[in-house]
Amino acid sequence: MRFIHTADIHLDSPLRGLSAYPDAPAEPLRGATREALRQLVTLAIEERVDFMVIAGDLYDGDWPDFNTGLFFCAEMGRLQRAGIPAFVLFGNHDAESHMTRALRLPDNVRRFSANGCEVHRLEHLKVALHGRSFKKRDTPENLLTSYGEPLRGYVNIGVLHTALEGHADHASYAPCTLEQLHAKGYDYWALGHVHEHRVWTGRSTICFPGNLQGRSIRETGRRGAVMVTIEDDAPPQLERLYLDVLRWEHVAVDVSACDSLDAVGRTTGRALARLLEEDAQVPRALRLTLQGETGLHGELFQRGGELRAHVLAEIAALAPERLWLEKVRLATRPLDSVLGSTPASAALGADALADLQALLAEARQDETLLQELRADFAQMLAKAPELATAVGEEQPLLRQVREGDLAALFDQVLPGLLARLAACD
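^ thats the sequence. predicted structure below, dont judge the formating
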């Protein structure tokens, strides 16, 4: 007996962080979640699976029209014509969707009630699926307490949308623990809500399949669903299915050995070539982080536009139709202390620049000045909160400033300032 377990499809959710860029791949962005679901349904039909389980967050909240739901109905209709039932549990995002309540789904789609745990049976397979949907988005109680005992003589599958212990990055809805899941005695737990793939074994096999399609740079790497095979009394066997149609990648490149922007470009190009060796057909949205201790530290900050152009040139030569640059992030360090012997400081021949360097060294230790700067930054961020976030996540430097850690500000910004002033000497 085989079935597909998927969750967190977030159908028609926008891919955050790319649409603001003029050279973003518009069509793949708009249709990524739909195409991933379409491929999943096609695979289910080709593999002739026995059924499909969707463990919550099929939708992404409420929508102004029914096109999203109509697309889902059409895909479920394809499963129906192939004789494949689908069991759908609604999660926190589905609970706020008008479509969840209003759309009539094809007859092969069986929903789990939100009023209590409901059991769906497939008698010819001797399978019992236990599940309870969210009635409202904010569901802080442990829904697991309403799940019944496993049915004797059946393969028991629990379906649950939950913030399992240890996943602080996700809202704490329907929380429970691994021990509580194992204690139920089900053969398999099909979970949703956490977007990363995780598996635990023991008395039960417990699985988060991860979301079907990454939606921002916070959801990097291969994404998809899980094929579950159960034979006789053996533990469930899991196979990951990779179905994302646009993949987010975060690539860190050490530029410590580079002595020019051209060398940085070549080093980056080699790293990107290695990236494309896996699943070469899948387009990538790429964030590049340059790191390492380098004499180019100040120059990289000073010549950010030119640096991006070097990276884009490498992408253009490699695979412009399969790689798209979301951002270049600088996490390099100067060769010595930021105010010590750097390429910039070597060029500081003028007394004025030498005096400035000494003043900055003193400022970094001046607690009164630091407190004034913290207050000024706090006031600025309070008036313009959008400065604290970009492409869906708070930027590290601004986060450190928000927390009052100004050392990073001195260490990352001053080398570029000194390099620029030295160049103007």
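Confidence is low (pLDDT under 50) at residues 337-350.
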